Amino acid sequence: MKIKDLTPEEYQQVGELEIINILPVLKSVGLPLEEKHMWEQLEHFANAEIVLTKTENRIDGFFMFVIENRRIQLVSFNMGAKLQADSLRDLLRQFRDQVATLDVDEVTSRAHLTNTRSINFHKRMGFTIQSSNEHHHEFRASKDALLEKVKLRV
User: Fold this and answer.
1) Domains defined for the chain, CATH in brackets
2) What is the pLDDT of residue 19?
3) Lowest CB count within 10 Å: 8, 37, 108, 152, which one?
């Protein structure tokens, strides 16, 4: 599913999760952004793929990614504050099932330096740091290695 295919309610919930969880991280590394920026980013990535998990009608978490040149670039991995272990497993399972069908070799992602939760998650999932700057780490994992790590967690 693509971002542009979300229902208005789902789109709103994805945007709210980005504002609640990602905006503070961006501000913590000195990027003076506002809520408007998060909505603009969501619009910019309208054609990005999204995998999400829900409890009833509420989105618990999602992966947003783009595919280019045999590579998946994770744009956002976001979990609601009340995400339960079962929902995380479901999200990882859906992500694994979709990625397994794609003709890609690697997965890249970024985590801001102040987002230790994200950095630790990347490391647990087998990503390695490829480069860093004053704002974030750039991570990389081969598709096969990532799928093996996800398989162990679902």
Assistant:
1) 3-109 (3.40.630.30)
2) 86
3) 8
